[in-house]
Amino acid sequence: MGLGLHGGGLATVRYLCARGAEVTVTDLRSQRELDNSLQRLAGLPLRLVLGGHNESDFRSADFVVKNPAVPRSSGFLAMARRIETDISLFLRRCPAQVIAVTGTKGKSTTAACIHHILTRLGRSSYLGGNITVSPLEFADDPSDGQFVVLELSSFQLGDLALVSDGLQILRPKVALITNLMADHMDYYASFEDYFDDKSVVFRGQTDDDFTLYNHDDANGRRYAALTPARPIPLARTAAAFASDDTAAWLDRGCGWFRPPDRSTAQPELLVPHAVRLIGAHNRTNLLFAASAVRCLGLHADRIAAAVADFGGVPHRMERVATLDGVDYYNDSAATIAEAALAAVQSFACPVHLIAGGSDKGLDVSLFGTIAARVASLYLLSGTATERITAHLHRSGAAWYGPFDTVDTAVAAARGNARPGDAVVLSPGCASFGMFRNEFHRGDVFRSAVRQLAHRAPRGAHIGGHTDAADH
Question: Residue 243's pLDDT is what?
Answer without folding.
Answer: 79
